[in-house]
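Hi, here's the filled form for the chain we discussed.

Project: internal
Contact: R.S.
Residues: 307
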Amino acid sequence: MKKGVMRPGHIQLRVLDMEEAVAHYRDLLGLIEVDRDDQGRVYLKGWTEVDKFSVVLREADSAGMDFVGYKCVNEGAVEQLRQELIEYGCKVEDIPEGELKGCGRRVRFDSPTGHLFEIFATKEQTGKWEVGNHNPEAWPRNLTGMKATRFDHCLLYGPNIAGTIDLFREVLGFDLAEQVLDGEGTRLAGFLTVSMKAHDVAFIEHPEPGKLHHASFFLETWEDVLRAADLISMTDTSIDIGPTRHGLTHGKTIYFFDPSGNRSEVFAGGDYHYPDHEPVTWDADKLGKAIFYHDRVLNERFLTVLT
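And the returned structure, exactly as it came back:
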């Protein structure tokens, strides 16, 4: 049952050197820098996103993800979900309006996998970058790099993904779109959606809590993914794997790293999901093909490099 969560809203990433990180996310990925705050954080967005920002960079001593937030339909939904999260047993923290520039109050909560999540309903809307929503042109002319359209999802590693998946399904109203099961039927990975997308967040079982595997950004075509691969080589950016296709979700993808070691993905295409769809299931012994459909084997770096 849908509970009022609409979509991913923002992710805050820790980076080791801010200007190097800005060069990655703004100049290479092609996100638009929209603001900075008195904490030194940098705010960015994809050009199709109507809210002011979707990515926040914070300089720190270690890389990784601070939190990811999901936007709700209104403040009433946030308040209802806040109470349900407390009743479910989550530790809840109220973050005041303005702590993130242009964003209303947020409700932050913990999870069995050790990740911090947020829900919110109010954020300044600046519209699609330069084209707006009144007689819009097809795209802005001054985009750079890979021209990423939006922050799409993140893949998170931690223990007890069953607990976090239950939290997202039972309290936040997400659907399980795709999963990986071992021979005993234990879920090793779950891909969850609160929309028609193949996934809005995904989890993989891992002994260390609170780990980020990647933050993912949407491109429009396979040709855009190939162009992204060219830009990765042109800039001598550290690459993980690709361009290739996933078996899971069937998206066309390439993975690479920011200068702090956080993994980025850009992808195009992918499956869709409706609430009446049964989860797509992959067997663990087919995991190589599930992740990298063409190679059908997993590289060690993809499984072990986390922030």
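Let me know if anything looks off before we file it.
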